[in-house]
Design brief:
Blueprint: E1 20-27, H1 30-46, E2 50-54, H2 57-69, E3 76-78, H3 91-104, E4 109-113, H4 122-138, E5 145-152, H5 158-167, E6 170-173, E7 176-179, E8 201-206, H6 210-223, H7 228-248, E9 252-260, E10 263-270, H8 293-300, E11 303-309, E12 313-321
Parallel strand pairs: 1-5, 1-6, 2-3, 2-4, 4-5
Antiparallel strand pairs: 6-7, 8-9, 9-10, 10-12, 11-12
Helix pairs in contact: 1-2, 4-5, 6-7, 7-8
Length: 323
Amino acid sequence: MTERTSPADAGPAAEAEPGFRHELYPYAGEAEFLSGALSFIDDARAGQELVLVAVADSKEQMLRAELEGSGAADNVSFLDTAALGRNPGRLLPAWQDWISKRATEGHQVRGISESPWADRTVAEAGELHYHEWLINLAFAESPAWWLLCPYDTSALEPSVLEAAERCHPLVLHEGSHGPSSSFVDEPYVFAELGSPCDPYQELSFRTGELTAVRSRVTTCATEHGLEGARLRELLIAVTEVASNSIKYGGGRGTVRVWAEDASLVCEFHDSGHVQDPLVGRIRPTIDQTGGRGLWLVQQLCDLVQIRSTAETGTTVRLHVALG
C-alpha cells in the first residue's frame, strides 16, 4: 500500500485549537448521567447553540422525556447510532456531516457522544478506543464546537476508562471543566492483533489473481453460512483491499480467512505502508481522486482493522457478522 501518516507517526495536540473541545465526563449511574447531560444542554441552549446527542436508546429516551417535560427540547437532535451499525469507522463521518452542515448555516454547536461499549468484542473495543483518539485529529481544524463524552464508571472496566482518559484533552469533574492530567499527546499505540483462529485458509496472490482471491473467500464464507447480499458486499470489500495490496504493496499480498466471534474475518497483508491515520474514515469529496476504496470498505464491513508501519507493512482485517 502507498505512502499514505501511520497512526504511529501522528499525534493530536494536547490542547485543541479554539475550534474544538473534546471532554471526558466520568459519571456513576443514570441519575448522574442525566444531571451532567442536562446541565451541558442547558448551557448550550443559553448560548443559542444546537446540540446533537448520540447515546444508547435507553438514555436517549430518558433525555427526551426530561427535555420535553421541561419544554427544553428545542435545538436538540439525536443521532441514531444503531443505524450506523457496529463499525466505529462510520462514526466520524456522521459527526462531520452534521457539524459541517450546521456551521455552514451559521450555527454554534455542541455534541454528547457515549460510545456503545456493551457486548463489544476485543477487536471492536480496540477500534472504539482508536475512534476516540482520532476525534482529536479529525476535528483539529474544524469550526468551533464542543463534544462531551460520558463514561459510566459504575459499569465499565477500569481499562476502558484509563484508555478514555488518555484520549480526551479535557475532563468534566465535579461540575468543573478543565484540562485532563491523564491526556497523552503521543502517537496511538495499538494492541497487537491476535493470531488467526484455526482452521484458517491462506492464499498468496499477485497481479492478475483477484479472481482466485474472491474464489477462496467465497468458499470459506459459504462454508460458514455467509451468502446472498452480505457475501456480495464482502467480495466488493475484498476486491478493494486486494487491489490495494497489488497496487501499493509491491504487486502481491497474502489473504487469510477464518471464523471468529460469530464473524467471518478476512485478513490481508502486504509490504506497503498506510500513512494516513484517517484513511477510510473521512467521506470522500466529489472532486477527490483516489482514496475511495477504504471508505467503501468501511461502509460494507461490520469492522475494519488497519495496522501499518514502514517496517512491518500493512495488515487489514475485514469482519462480517455471520448468522
